[in-house]
Specification:
This protein is α+β, with helices and mostly antiparallel strands. 38% of the residues lie in helices and 20% in strands. It has 35 helices and 34 strands. The strands form 7 sheets. An 8-stranded antiparallel β-sheet has the order 14-13-19-10-11-18-15-16. A hairpin with a 6-residue loop joins strand 27 (728-732) and strand 28. The longest helix has 24 residues, at 148-171. Bound molecules: guanosine-5'-triphosphate and magnesium ion. Guanosine-5'-triphosphate binds next to helix 1 and helix 5. One of its GO terms (biological process) is cytosolic ribosome assembly. GO terms for molecular function: GTP binding; GTPase activity; ribosome binding. Keywords: GTP-binding, Hydrolase, Nucleotide-binding, Ribosome biogenesis. It comes from Deinandra increscens subsp. villosa.
Length: 1015
């Protein structure tokens, strides 16, 4: 790179939006005007240059984020186009991590949608500076035929709504996207209140500030308010600065006095329109009328061309197609790329100013523990590295730090054949496993120093800790040599010798070192960048096997490559030895399988139906909170199991946790994992995460009795829970699930001859519900026999724990994990009754396994039986679904929804458009092929987006058999086939897992015989 390196003239930006709102179309125009000739302006908007994959062109949606380097007025702009489809939302995370600014697009007709919420949230999390682009303004004129005033109201409402979303993120950081949508769209305040929203200094997006532009990406025109302010300044005799403030909101121009007034300054009955309508929208509408109407005023166009001195070729102006005329005039009058790129340069930060405030997100300050002071050198250097990232220090000699946000595969033949110096390269020389035609490149940004080809760097995984040395630390750090660096031009790659801080590059040579993302550094004494957050996790799972078993090795290699090439896919081997592929949704899954078949494995594959996961729980809804808690006490409310050798008796009480608490445990699993692992957790902003988690635990518990008004009851309930929260020994399954293992109440008596296996309230301690317990005071007066029994009981703690973990990992209904249950496990060990028994111990071990194993099994069995005894229920995943459909297809859409057991939440006509928006919950188990079916039944006019929302217990009893006369009347006596959905789901899973299923082939033999006789 040249010596006149000026970091201040760089902008790294991404385009973010809901699916189909026009991101790639917009990118086309920016590329055509500033991409150095890679795209001809004539093709812009139609080619969709950044959608270079076949599959993207075929489906007309973007599936990955990709970058292109642009040059505009002395600025270097790295533009990343991202996908809007929910299945590829992980690519939004990888794009926003590398960007400092984000163009948030909203379709002016469709308005704010579910992914608009999600991308705004991602930008907020990653501290990306957003600007708003209201796209498809042409549709307001041509399609909806709105008047300028109506269009203004609509645009204002969208700006208001987007501002509302951002301010919600600012105030309530933990609100999930679905929650915020359900909380009700912020923008729906009705027209009359629109007047109050203007001039709110707090608002993020304000057209008068210049960070909102109005565009038509298809035809390549767009403008911000400043373009018009400058034009009218001389005409109206006002400064362009004051006009800029007046061209949005309720500001009116009085021609007589040449004054700009607010609403109050208007004479009664005045027909004045807001200045934005009068001076901006009306001329625009006039141009459209002049060009599109057959009897349009062609003179008007000529006047416009003359006033603005536009060089429109006469050939285009005389074209018979009014659209061509319009596009030709509009794109010259208000060029889209100028409107967008001048806003980018003015309102989006350069890397130096951006990194100064993004560093707190990228490299959060670490808590330094006292015993780390021995490493003060390391700490000091790591602090210097952080400073260097904060300053975006681009001097070649300073420490080099880069972040790889994803790996992507390109076919070998796509790599440039010549290097920077024009020498022919042998691309195949690189080691690797040599068995693939694919080359893996890292999508990276340099945050400090300079990267150059041939450089050796350290690759740090997210778990790396520079303060830890030793074997475990080595796993998280590797040394790698950068093979070559490329500037990305969409699909094209231009070799560069080096890349300095503030730039986005593709790096070759890290394929063997990085799986998904990593931090690169020239020193070991550097903290890894914080992990990226993903909006959803891959939930759609299928099992894959080769059609021909001999291709197994090819499949395994293919899966390995796919896992590397796709930032989001998860590849695993199930307990039953199947290769399982997890994707974000159907479209993503389809692309993964296509890639696997055609690029990575190149063999025929058999794909199983989707493996839907379920959870298991017990009935809880119909009970009042106090009755639930009663199940923890009482002498009949437990399940008892004894080990085969008779020495350990396990009693289990079970409790259904409040749903809100279960959800909280599920949602906070990452934080809980850190807390339970004993990691130091830093306060963010003003609140400590552990304290806020505790507060939310209490909120969740209290929400259970919010409708019980009696203050006394509330207090009593809280006291009961206070006691429980002090007794949490573990969470499960796998240490952080939504199930609790509680210690027995301390008042539980021991009957002298046996000893309880005593756990510790470990999780309660970590969460700070109890102070670190001093081990129960040693009983000095006990006999040697009891002492040894106590020791034995202590050694059995881990058996109780594992029994609990295994049981919660696979419930009794269909081996799926348990959900929202608390178990109190009392395991008491008694001594050998006689010596002969002790002698028999050995032979018993042979028969039943070692004692600890027997205890574990007994605990596991007791927990599972407890679930079966307390009205077990199956829990299924629910998607939150947003559907858009024209009114005439509403009926067909509801038919599809009802076939899929959907629950409608909200239906709403979109003002000023023929579209209906419907929100619903759809069970995951019913969601496959949903989008396809919907498209078929509504002739492609409806669209649906699904986001995984929550778990929900099916109220239906899977073991329901009609018993009373009434039930028999309603459900029949069992001779007709019962539609028990819960049972059907359970049987489906059991069959898939090869577990026994009770299937009655002949249900009522007597009836069949009767029938037979009649024949
Ligand atoms: N009328 C009109 N149509 C537009 C405009 N901009 C884009 N479109 C159309 O909207 C559709 C979607 O455009 P894309 O650019 O592919 O949308 P996208 O946001 O990149 O979509 P994804 O990448 O799949 O999320 C295409 O059919 C475009 O022609 C516009 O300003 N006016
Ligand atoms: Mg796109």
């Amino acid at each position: 790179m040249a010596d006149s390196y000026d970091c201040r003239s760089i902008r790294n930006i991404c385009i973010l939006a809901h699916v189909d709102h026009g991101k790639t179309t917009l990118a086309d125009h920016l590329i055509a005007s500033s991409g150095g000739g890679v795209l001809h302006p004539k093709q812009a908007g139609r080619l969709r240059f950044m959608d270079y994959l076949d599959e993207e062109q075929r489906r007309a949606i973007t599936m990955k984020s990709s970058s292109i380097a642009l040059q505009y007025k002395g600025h270097a702009i790295n533009l990343i186009d991202s996908p809007g489809h929910m299945d590829f939302c992980s690519e939004v995370s990888t794009a926003s991590r590398l960007s400092d600014g984000g163009l948030v697009l909203v379709d002016a007709v469709e308005g704010v949608h579910i992914q608009t919420h999600a991308v705004l949230r991602q930008a907020w999390i990653e501290k990306v500076t957003p600007c708003l682009v209201l796209n498809k303004i042409d549709r307001l004129i041509v399609e909806l035929k709105l008047s300028p005033m109506e269009a203004y109201n609509r645009l204002q409402r969208i700006v208001h709504e987007v501002n509302g979303i951002v301010s919600a993120y600012k105030s309530e950081k933990y609100l999930s996207d679905v929650d915020s949508i359900l909380a009700g769209p912020v923008g729906e305040t009705g027209d009359e209140s629109q007047e109050f929203v203007e001039d709110d200094e707090e608002d993020t997006f304000q057209p008068q500030k210049g960070n909102v532009v109005f565009v038509c990406a298809l035809d390549g025109w767009g403008f911000g308010i400043c373009e018009f302010a400058e034009f009218y300044a001389s005409k109206l005799g006002a400064s362009s600065a004051s006009l800029q403030k007046a061209l949005w909101g309720p500001r009116y121009f009085i021609p007589k006095t040449k004054m700009i007034v607010g609403k109050k300054g208007l004479a009664a009955g005045s027909k004045a329109r807001p200045m934005f309508v009068q001076f901006v929208l009306e001329p625009l509408w006039q141009v459209y009328e002049a060009a599109m109407d057959t009897d349009g005023d062609k003179k008007f166009l000529e006047k416009l061309i003359k006033t603005f001195n536009l060089s429109v070729p006469p050939r285009e102006l005389q074209n018979k197609d009014p659209k061509v005329v319009l596009q030709s005039v509009m794109s010259r009058w208000l060029p889209l790329s100028d409107a967008i790129l001048s806003m980018v340069i003015k309102h989006m930060p350069d890397p130096i100013s951006a990194q100064a405030f993004r560093v707190s997100r990228l490299l959060p300050k670490r808590e330094i523990l006292d015993d780390d002071f021995a490493n003060s050198d390391v700490i000091a250097e790591a602090e210097l590295v952080r400073k260097s990232v904060e300053a975006c220090d681009s001097q070649p000699e300073s420490v080099c730090v880069a972040f790889v946000s994803k790996m992507f595969a390109v076919p070998m033949k796509m790599l440039p054949q010549r290097d920077v110096n024009g020498e022919i390269l042998n691309n195949y020389t690189e080691g690797g496993n040599g068995d693939s035609d694919e080359c893996f490149l890292a999508f990276a940004r340099v945050f400090s120093g300079e990267l150059h080809s041939g450089q050796k760097v350290f690759v740090l995984s997210a778990l790396y800790d520079p303060l830890k040395t030793g074997d475990s630390a080595h796993k998280h750090i590797q040394e790698a040599e950068l093979h070559s660096l490329y500037l990305m031009m969409g699909q094209g790659l231009t070799p560069v010798a080096s890349a300095r801080a503030g730039n986005i590059v593709a790096i070759r040579g890290l394929g063997q070192h990085i799986l998904k993302s990593a931090t690169l550094s020239s020193t070991k004494n550097c903290w890894p960048f914080s992990s990226m957050t993903f909006q959803v996790s891959p939930t759609l799972k299928v099992a894959i096997e080769p059609s021909d078993p001999v291709d197994m090795a090819a499949l395994m290699r293919g899966l390995r490559l796919l896992n590397r090439a796709d930032p989001f896919v998860e590849v695993s081997v199930s307990a039953r030895g199947e290769h399982v592929l997890a994707a974000a949704g159907e479209v993503h899954l389809e692309r993964c399988i296509k890639d696997l078949k055609e690029r990575f494995a190149k063999v025929n594959l058999e794909i199983s139906p989707p493996l839907v996961s379920f959870r298991e729980t017990i009935e809880g809804e119909s009970l009042n909170p106090f009755d639930k808690l009663k199940s923890l006490t009482g002498n009949s409310n437990y399940i008892e199991k004894t080990t085969p050798n008779g020495r350990c008796t396990v009693r289990v009480h079970i409790l259904k946790l409040p749903d809100a608490l279960t959800k909280l445990l599920d949602d906070s699993s990452d934080l809980l994992e850190d807390i339970i692992a004993g990691k130091a957790i830093r306060a963010q902003d003003d609140e400590h995460p552990v304290e806020s988690l505790k507060k939310r635990i209490w909120d969740a518990i209290e929400s259970e009795i919010s409708d019980t008004n009696a203050e006394k009851d509330r207090e009593k309930y809280k006291l009961l829970w206070e006691n429980l929260l002090k007794r949490i020994w573990a969470l499960g399954p796998r240490q952080v699930g939504p199930n609790m293992l509680l210690l027995p109440d301390s008042t539980t008596e021991e009957d002298g001859s046996s000893v309880l296996v005593k756990g510790t309230p470990y999780v309660s301690e970590r969460l700070g519900f109890v102070s670190n317990s001093d081990e129960s005071e040693a009983k000095t007066s006990t006999s040697a026999e009891i002492r040894s029994l106590n020791e034995e009981a202590d050694s059995l703690r881990s058996s109780v724990l594992s029994g609990f973990q295994v049981a919660t990992g696979s419930g009794p209904l269909c081996d799926e994990p348990m959900w929202g249950l608390a178990f109190v496990i009392e395991a008491s060990v008694s001594p050998f009754v006689s010596e002969t028994e002790a002698i028999h111990q050995q032979s018993q071990s042979d028969q039943y396994g070692v004692f600890s194993g027997q205890v574990m099994t007994a605990v596991k069995e007791a927990c599972k039986t407890a679930v079966l005894q307390k009205n077990p229920r199956i829990v299924e995943g629910m998607y939150f679904c947003e559907l858009n459909t024209p009114t005439e297809f509403l009926g067909a859409m509801y038919a599809v929804l009802s076939r899929r057991r959907a629950r409608i939440l909200k239906e709403e006509m979109q003002e000023g458009s023929p579209l209906f928006t419907v929100h619903a919950y759809v069970p995951v188990a019913e969601s496959f092929g949903f989008a396809d079916e919907l498209r078929r039944w509504t002739s492609g006019a409806s669209s649906a987006l699904l986001v995984l929302s929550h778990w929900e217990a099916l109220a239906e009893d899977p073991f329901f058999v009609p018993k009373t006369e009434e039930e028999k009347e309603e459900f029949g006596d069992g001779s007709s086939v019962l539609q028990n959905t819960a049972r059907k789901l359970i049987d489906g899973v059991r069959r898939r897992k090869g577990l026994p299923v009770e299937e009655k082939v002949v249900q009522f033999a007597t009836k069949q015989r009767t029938l037979a006789r009649k024949v």
